[in-house]
Amino acid sequence: MKYLDKILLFLTILIVVFNLTQLNIYNFLDDENRIALICFILSLCALILILILMISKKIRDKYKS
Hints:
Helices cover about 85% and strands about 0% of the residues. The chain is an all-alpha fold. The chain starts with a helix and ends with a helix.
């Protein structure tokens, strides 16, 4: 389970970087850019959730013993 968390964290970081490269900075409010922006925000949310999960597991293990 420990390795699965790290693999998911790595994959979400890759998705965040990929979606960041898909954004067009010069035409930020374009229709094509809207999908990339939504995917970027959702991947950041997934990254935050995985980090919260990892921190909560550390806290649980600390108080378990």
